[in-house]
Design goal:
Layout lengths: L18 H11 L5 H22 L3 E3 L15 H4 L5 E9 L7 E4 L4 E4 L5 H5 L1 H5 L14 E10 L2 H18 L3 E7 L1 H4 L3 E2 L5 H21 L3 E5 L2 H4 L10 H19 L7 E5 L18 H5 L5 E4 L23 E7 L9 H15 L7 E2 L9 H22 L1
Helix pairs in contact: 1-2, 2-6, 6-8, 8-10, 12-13
Protein name: Cobalamin-independent methionine synthase II family protein
Organism: Kocuria coralli
InterPro entries: Met_Synth_C/arc, UROD/MetE-like_sf
Length: 402
């Protein structure tokens, strides 16, 4: 996974869906087309999106998360919602976590989690959040989240097999040599309303055992699995009132231990972990600083660590990596272009950001990336321009560093 002669590039996963795929998703949900019809549309779309990534110059490609159903062109939750169709033990409900307020208690630390409407950042900027002209929350379809009412099992074997087949075929066709697929973390999986498990620990470990099947299938296919886990950083803002940092670290430690349980025996060089503070385009003044999270992050059994770093709330935190103790055989995958602004970063800025991280951990251990998924957050034309700037900046940084 280490660089040898240049800075390699990748992204976090979600890319804008095509109108054809969005229409096929809707038709399948409504029973108007078959699974085979949907997978045929996905296969064609993955072929095209991998070709686009290669044309732009992305090194470590993926399927655009085209196997993770988006409700509409604007969708902040597809990275999580896709799991609902791949898990047994769930019962449909009328709950939409972006539009309702619900609290549940977790341990250790007696942490009380809330839904989006009761977050501290939203409380601080309530007028802005509730003003549709602010652009913080753009138009989206309501998505109903299920409840856990029975033992969790993994039922997504056909779906993950289709993801694998589609990506590997597209990679072979385009000459791509490194590919990844994103999968939900146990901690994020456990954010579904629970009516079955007696304790937080039982719930999180049940999620770990279920999702391990997806991780293993991806790794066994020779691909990299990216663990998507906003729950490690984002949950801080979801706790109201603000907890003590040490209580919060105890809360996320359980989730890290469960994730490592799910990753046991899997080769670390085929695992990367994605940390972010959430994808909504808000002020983020209540984000927990990376200085509190970097040690827990490095305790995760992954070969690469992806995180937001172009986000202006966290762009200064690159300095922490100089003293973080990153193992020599591991890499960081910092975001050097952002998903939360329509402004396309200049390649010189991208190169400077890459150079900062290279000075902290070494040029061999920096893979340039995006902050988070671009699909569902940015117009396709802007998303493509940002990937182009990412590649151009990485080439510029490579000329400086190699």
């Amino acid at each position: 996974m280490l660089n040898s002669d240049r800075i390699r590039t990748t992204h976090v996963g979600s890319l804008p869906r095509t109108p054809e795929l969005l229409a096929a998703n809707e038709a399948y949900q409504e029973g108007r087309i078959t699974w085979d019809d949907l997978t045929a549309t996905m296969r064609s779309g993955v072929t095209d999106i991998v070709a686009t990534q290669r044309e732009i110059g992305i090194d470590v490609v993926n399927d655009g998360e085209y196997g993770h159903t988006m409700s509409s062109a604007v969708d902040y939750g597809a990275w999580w919602n896709y799991s609902f169709s791949r898990l047994g033990g769930l019962t449909p409900s009328d709950e939409d976590r972006w539009a309702t307020t619900e609290k549940h208690r977790s341990s250790p630390g007696n942490i009380v989690l809330t839904t989006f409407t009761d977050r501290r950042d939203r409380e601080r900027f309530r007028e802005a959040y509730e003003d549709p002209s602010s652009g913080i929350l753009t138009a989206r379809k309501a998505v109903k989240q299920p409840k856990i009412t029975g033992p969790l099992t993994y039922t997504g074997q056909d779906a993950v097999a289709a993801d694998i087949t589609n990506l590997k075929a597209a990679m072979e066709r385009t000459g791509a040599t490194e590919g990844f697929l994103a999968a939900l973390s146990p901690g994020s999986c456990a954010r579904v309303s629970n009516e079955y498990y007696a304790t937080d620990e039982e719930l999180v470990y049940a999620c770990a055992d279920a999702m391990r099947e997806e991780y293993k299938a991806i790794v066994d296919a020779g691909l990299i699995v990216q663990i998507d886990d906003p729950s490690i950083a984002e949950s801080w803002d979801q706790i109201n009132p603000e907890p003590a940092v040490e209580d919060y670290l105890g809360f996320i430690q359980l989730r890290i231990e469960a994730l490592n349980h799910a990753l046991r025996g899997l080769p670390q060089d085929q695992v990367r972990f994605h940390l972010c503070w959430g994808s909504w385009h808000g002020p983020h003044t209540t984000d927990l600083e990376l200085k509190h999270l970097i040690r827990p992050l490095l305790s995760i059994d992954a070969g690469g660590y992806s995180f937001e770093a172009a986000n202006v709330r966290h762009a200064h935190e690159w300095r922490l990596w100089a003293d973080a103790g990153l193992p020599e055989d591991k890499v960081i995958v910092p975001g050097v272009v952002s998903h939360s602004t329509n402004v396309v970063e200049h390649p010189e800025l991208v190169a400077d950001r890459i150079g900062n991280f290279a000075s902290a951990v070494g040029r061999e251990r920096v893979i340039a990336s995006t902050d988070c998924g671009l699909g569902g957050r940015l117009h396709p034309q802007i998303a493509r321009a940002k990937l182009g700037s990412l590649v151009a900046g990485a080439r510029m940084a490579s000329d400086r560093l190699f």
